[in-house]
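Running this now, will post back.
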Amino acid sequence: MDKKTCLYDKHVALGALMSPFGGFIMPIQYSNITDEHQAVRNHCGVFDVSHMGEVRITGPDAERYVNHIFTNDVTDAPTGQIYYGMMLYPNGGTVDDLLVYKMGADDFFLVINAANIDKDVAWMEEHKAGFDITLDHQSDTYGQLAVQGPEAEDVVETVLGLKVSDLKFYTAKTIPAGGEELIVSRTGYTGEDGFEIYGSHTYIIEAWDALLSSNRCKPCGLGCRDTLRFEVGLPLYGDELSADISPVMAGLSMFCKLDKAEFIGKEALVQQKAEGVSQKLVGIELADKAIPRHGYTVLHDGQPVGSVTTGYHCISVDKSVCMALVDTHVAKLGTALQVQIRKKVFDGTVVKKKFYEKHYKK
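Update: finished.
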């Protein structure tokens, strides 16, 4: 049975196209994906991301435990700092990618992908032996909004009355509002400036209503969330990362601190860096307007060498592009490849995975 977020009735009332995603019934689009995409690129959009999971790790060994299960390094992190990274299996495959918020001394807030909540929490529970921590699964407590776009700061401050201009990129703070403590961060999944707001279901519903009634913020579905993240080369678990795709294969080694004393999967990554990997994630630009989709075969000189992980006709740059996992010997920039789209084969070239420049406020 698919779950519903606290904003489900709001989406239905707006006539959103609803569809299962990550164990929830979620809005895919309201007007259309292109309009919503362009609203975020040029103005401001709001997403219901209440399907995401939240886990609080506290206690004397919280920092040591997080460093044990997480590829990035949170040692002596300043309060309010946010880190992106992965949890790995011992073989280097990815359990999930996630954000870790340092909320205070011995206090970490982990944000995980909706489809992986049960698996991730079980994984964390399984690996907490020997650590003096409390693991509090809080996913049912929080709703979450992502307000994204070049006007997001002004919208959050003027419409919601939340002071966020002091937040630097990838930092968070708590803000009292409506008798509760919100967690607000300068983060997002769109390549634009923006904020993610975690609060009670009651607050999130009120904030959603305020944002929409202001006419300054367009409701956006998961359709354009995917086109936006894809254009700027951000990975989606299940496509660009998985139990079979390590961060090294995905080109995300910068978020894996191999100089850390230890973390689950470290030995496998060290070996992959030393010996190389058989496949790598690349960008491919097609010479045609045909659209490459997830799972389509990638060819080199007529021979299969990999498959598409995500593909679109890019809204912001008017090109047909994809990310694909291909054999390492054909992964160099400029390599001529082909993508089989149904019964036809289309020429393409290996390019950087970022098809559109990010516009974060650093």
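The chain has a mean pLDDT of 97. More later if anyone needs it.
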